[in-house]
């Protein structure tokens, strides 16, 4: 779902960096004069056949007087969104690769909030990166649910009318975690798009099907707002771990969230302070061709 509360789209350069976190890939561009990140241009860049291909774009904005690292994030459908755990960690790997950060924690500003990250080390082209997602929140108010659009019991029902056990979670962006006996691809295809654009949500949500499968271990499938099915997601992993702790299915502490692309470790306190950690693998860096850039949508606004 496209949001309209963002400032004018930035202009960015033509050099890019690409990496993935468990198959969830992002492109990093720096603010520049090559092209404008309009919705049409973002869609073209993220296209997996006619563009570079990615699950989203991270734009590192030009430094201001305070030298704080600021960034903006865009979905492959062209919409802007608050934050991505994997997108943040991919940005951290880029900063480490360029020698802009070391092993000490550093902060970035995204979606109006500060996030502290640490690059713990690198082996070959794989970086070990954590992101402190801060205090997260649980409940209808956390994601701005319109209670009048829910069922008569104040809950969610699936497309077939069957009740769903859904836990709303904010990780700086909205999530609906559906706790199910078994997370299957067929169920995700049914519930994911239905919940992601539910009438009770003003700006949509990311959706997870989650199945606890032992102490400190949850399996999850993910349907991201503005993306669709993804192999992994950092903020989704956080939401799943938080929901499991909130519902008393897991003890506070480290929760291993297993997704199709692999596992991330989410540390959750009883107050829902949350840290995400896992690998980021560099794929490539390159330059958009001048003629290809010239065919991108002209900078005509948001």
Explained architecture:
By secondary structure, the chain is an alpha+beta fold. It has two domains: 11-132 and 282-294, Diaminopimelate Epimerase, Chain A, domain 1; 137-271, Roll (Diaminopimelate Epimerase, Chain A, domain 1). It contains five helices and 20 strands. Strands 1-2-4-5-7-8-9-20 form an eight-stranded mixed beta barrel. A hairpin with a 5-residue loop joins strand 5 (69-74) and strand 6. The longest helix is centred in the N-terminal third of the chain and has 13 residues, at 85-97. The model has no long low-confidence stretch (mean pLDDT 93).
Evaluate the radius of gyration. Answer: 19 Å
Q: Determine the CATH superfamily of the largest domain.
A: Diaminopimelate Epimerase, Chain A, domain 1
CATH class of the largest domain: Alpha Beta
Number of strands: 20
Mean pLDDT comes to 93
Portion in strands: 35-45%
């Amino acid at each position: 779902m496209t949001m309209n509360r963002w400032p004018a789209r930035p202009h960015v350069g033509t050099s890019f960096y690409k990496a993935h976190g468990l198959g969830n890939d992002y492109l990093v561009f720096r603010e520049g004069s090559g092209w404008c990140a309009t919705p049409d241009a973002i869609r073209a860049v993220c296209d997996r056949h006619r563009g570079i291909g990615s699950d989203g774009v991270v734009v590192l904005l030009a430094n201001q007087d305070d030298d704080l690292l600021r960034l903006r994030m865009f979905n492959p459908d062209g919409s802007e969104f608050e934050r991505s755990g994997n997108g943040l960690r991919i940005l951290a790997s880029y900063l480490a690769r360029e020698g802009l950060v070391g092993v000490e924690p550093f902060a970035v500003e995204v979606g109006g909030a500060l996030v502290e990250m640490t690059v713990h080390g690198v082996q070959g082209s794989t970086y070990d990166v954590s992101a402190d997602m801060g205090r997260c929140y649980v409940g209808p108010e956390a994601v701005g649910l319109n209670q009048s659009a829910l069922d008569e019991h104040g809950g969610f029902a699936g497309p077939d009318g069957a009740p769903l056990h859904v836990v709303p979670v904010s990780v700086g962006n909205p999530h609906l975690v559906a706790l199910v006996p078994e997370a299957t691809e067929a169920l995700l295809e049914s519930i994911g798009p239905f919940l992601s654009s539910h009438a009770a949500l003003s700006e949509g949500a990311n959706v997870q099907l989650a199945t606890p499968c032992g102490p400190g271990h949850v399996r999850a499938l993910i349907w991201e707002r503005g993306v669709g099915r993804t192999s992994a997601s950092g903020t989704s992993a956080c939401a799943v771990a938080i929901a499991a702790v909130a519902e008393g299915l897991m003890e506070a502490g480290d929760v291993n969230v297993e997704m199709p692309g692999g596992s991330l470790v989410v540390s959750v306190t009883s107050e829902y302070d949350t840290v995400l950690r896992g690998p980021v693998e560099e794929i490539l860096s390159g330059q958009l061709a001048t003629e290809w850039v010239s065919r991108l949508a002209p900078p005509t606004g948001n």
